[in-house]
């Protein structure tokens, strides 16, 4: 689904140059649950940013299905993001003056083939929170709302940047379990960035990064059958 070929990203400041990504080669398949692991500064966010077109590459090529993303203009890339990608961050970014349903609706309106919001709320156990406001919900519940918001527009890929970074262990587990269930139920490609090594066992593929390079790719073949 996504292919990266010799992707390099450097940041220049004065005479010095930082390699945020160095000659990355990577493929991500349709419907895969991928976890990107690595210490702070290893290039995880940059990897997410260049795949999602939030940032340009210095050299190399990225393709999505048969489309070469690195050839798209900024407007085309914005349209690509709008149609195909969903995002979940450490911060839930919910609008405080809108209720749960309205927060989700904002995200789904921009999709061409949105999913049913009430059905999604039921899937994540929030059917009774439909008319509540963000400040009436726990952190874990707010993150579940932001997951539904990203899913509602029916994207092909959901990017999660430290989705459990603000949650305790128990809530983190719940959120990750939920992402895994949604990956199976809706066949969405899910890419999770984290430095929480406990997440790795849930993934189809674990990509370990260090100093802008992929140091190891672990493919977990048994996961889906073992559930
Ligand atoms: P996290 O690891 O939590 O994702 P980052 O270290 O990646 O946090 O930083 C968050 C944001 O700051 C990113 O958008 C990244 O591009 C930017 N950033 C990171 N390092 C630098 C830097 N040295 N100079 C300028 N911006 C940076
Ligand atoms: P991670 O997400 O794994 O913490 P990042 O992708 O944010 O790592 O950063 C990789 C490297 O690139 C780091 O050395 C970081 O300081 C640098 N970097 C990231 N964004 C910027 C930026 N906007 N300007 C300068 N350096 C950056």
TrEMBL record:
Gene Ontology terms, MF aspect: ATP binding; ATP hydrolysis activity; transmembrane transporter activity
BP-aspect Gene Ontology terms: amino acid transport
Pfam families given in the database record: ABC_tran (PF00005)
Domain ABC transporter: residue ranges: 2-227
Keyword terms: Amino-acid transport, ATP-binding, Nucleotide-binding, Transport
Gene3D superfamilies reported for this sequence: P-loop containing nucleotide triphosphate hydrolases (3.40.50.300)
SUPFAM superfamilies attached to this UniProt entry: P-loop containing nucleoside triphosphate hydrolases
Any one annotated GO CC term: membrane protein complex
InterPro entries per UniProt: AAA+_ATPase, ABC_transporter-like_ATP-bd, ABC_transporter-like_CS, MacB-like_ATP-bd, P-loop_NTPase
Coiled coil: none
UniProt family annotation: Belongs to the ABC transporter superfamily.
Name of protein: Abc transporter
